[in-house]
Design a protein that fits this description.
By secondary structure, the chain is α+β, with helices and mostly antiparallel strands. About 15% of the residues lie in helices and about 45% in strands. The protein has one helix and nine strands. The protein has one helix at about 1-25; strands at about 30-35, 40, 50-55, 60-75, 80-95, 100-105, 115-130, 135, 145. The strands form two sheets. Strands 2, 4, 5, 7, 8 and 9 form a six-stranded antiparallel beta sheet that branches. Strands 1-3-6 form a three-stranded antiparallel beta sheet, with no helix packed on it. The longest helix has 25 residues, at about 1-25. It starts with a helix and ends with a strand. Mean pLDDT is about 75; it is low at about 1-20.
């Protein structure tokens, strides 16, 4: 059963990667997003964060966006990895055809006292809300970005 799930996830990822490359080529996505973090992050520092830049590729001003991350947490005492799906809604103003740089703090998302190793697998923007209250949505990660190196 687990093998079938992995095959299904792999096929979805391959289709999404193909769609993303096509979307970027045709410039149809209303945004560009870049993460500035290691694929594997350790909680040895006081603050663990994901730094990112978000480019508003539309003709409207953005007032908020929702970013979804999928990652695995590997702890020394556990025999199995824990899978996490995070969703962060960020209230931020980004003018049309402009960008911002910001960060998301992850320390509160995990148990205190543990020093997990986090492996980021993919991320995507699931919702963009514009100043005129219109929205762009990708609730299932059709245009996801893979964090894993081939």
């Amino acid at each position: 059963m687990k093998a079938k799930s992995l095959i299904f996830l792999f096929l979805i990822c391959m289709q999404s990667c193909t769609l993303l490359k096509e979307a970027e080529k045709n410039d149809i996505l209303p945004y560009k997003l870049k993460l500035y973090t290691n694929t594997e992050t350790s909680f040895n520092s006081e603050e663990t964060k994901i730094e990112y830049s978000f480019y508003n590729n539309s003709q409207k001003n953005v007032k908020s966006l929702t970013i979804v991350f999928f990652c695995n947490q590997e702890e020394e005492n556990d025999t199995e990895d824990k899978e996490y799906n995070f969703e962060f809604t960020i209230n931020v103003f980004v003018e049309a055809n402009n960008y911002i740089e910001d960060f998301i703090c992850l320390n509160e998302a995990f148990n205190e006292g543990s020093e997990p190793s986090i492996l980021f697998e993919y991320f995507y923007v699931s919702c963009i809300v514009y100043e005129d209250d219109s929205e762009w949505n990708d609730p299932f990660g059709r245009y996801m970005f893979s964090c894993l190196q081939p």
